[in-house]
Amino acid sequence: MKKHTTETEWIEARVTATNKLNKYINKVVPIVLDILNNNHKLKKDGELNKKTSDLIREIIKYNPQNRIHCYIDWTEHSAYLKFKLRYESSQFNHNYVENHILLWRNERQWNDKKGEFELINTSLNDSFIPLKTKTTKQVINVIKKHNNLIDKMEALKEKAVKNKEGYNNYLYI
């Protein structure tokens, strides 16, 4: 296990893990969406039928080598393909990179006769945009820009407070 001792090493570990997860998502999601487009009949409760579920589970099954967990998280309203990758952040600690992609949304309507909601329409996600990878240098530059903007906002806030001094009763801000 590699011990990450500097902030740059921590960032690099996270960037590497995020890029690995994004590449996996870009590989798996189009296949899963294609299966759903060809065979997406749902049960009354909004769950996938067994045949489709088994096909998808075979694609997203856990592979210990890549340490990526992937599963379908569904409710009566929608379903997401959820991803989680564990990476080493220090000698004794692990962190996670997570993401999720919408697979479908269910439209439901109340049925007075049955006294329950019924599934009336399912709309599949047909607009997956592949996720991009970033370099450590790009991420560090964004962090620096973000921190600079935070510093500028704090300086402006202090300036606004000083500008208001002595006028508290006159200003309604």
What does this structure look like?
The protein is flat, with a radius of gyration of 24 Å. The chain has 2 domains: 7-130, no CATH class; 135-173. The protein has 3 helices and 4 strands. The relative contact order is 0.15. The model has no long low-confidence stretch (mean pLDDT 87). The chain has helices at residues 7-38, 50-60, 136-164, and strands spanning 68-74, 78-88, 94-111, 116-124. The longest helix has 32 residues, at 7-38. A 4-stranded antiparallel beta sheet has the order 1-2-3-4, covered by helices on one side. It has 173 residues and is α+β, with helices and mostly antiparallel strands.
What average pLDDT do the residues reach?
Answer: 87
Kindly report the spatial arrangement of strands forming the biggest sheet.
1-2-3-4
- Distance between the amino and carboxyl termini: 54 Å
Shape category: flat
Count of runs of 4 or more consecutive helical residues: 3
* Estimated share of beta-strand residues: 25-35%
Number of domains: 2
- Backbone structural class: alpha+beta
Radius of gyration in whole Å, from Cα? 24 Å
Count of β-strands: 4
Topology:
Blueprint: H1 7-38, H2 50-60, E1 68-74, E2 78-88, E3 94-111, E4 116-124, H3 136-164
Helix pairs in contact: 1-2
Summarize the structure.
42% of the residues lie in helices and 26% in strands. It is α+β, with helices and mostly antiparallel strands and 173 residues long. Strand 3 (94-111) and strand 4 (116-124) form a beta hairpin.
